[in-house]
Amino acid sequence: MRHIFLGLFFLAACSDGNESGSPRDRSGSPIDALDDAGTTPTDTPPGNQGGDGGSRPPTGDGSRPPADGSAGDGKDGAPPVPPGELGPDYRELGSLAVTQKMDSFTGDTCTFAYESFTPASTRTEAAVVIAPGFALFPGAGSSREALQTLAKHVASWGVTTLTVDLCTNGGSIDHAKNGAAIAEFGAKVGGERVVYAGFSAGGLGSLLAAAQATNTEAFLALDAVDTNDLAKGALDALTKPIYAMAGEPSMCNSDGNMLAQYKGRMLRVVKVNKAQHFTFEGAPCQGFKCSLCPGGGEVEAAAIRALATSYVLGITGVEANALSWWQEGSAGFTALMADGVVGVQ
Question: Is the pTM of this model over 0.70?
Answer without folding.
Answer: yes
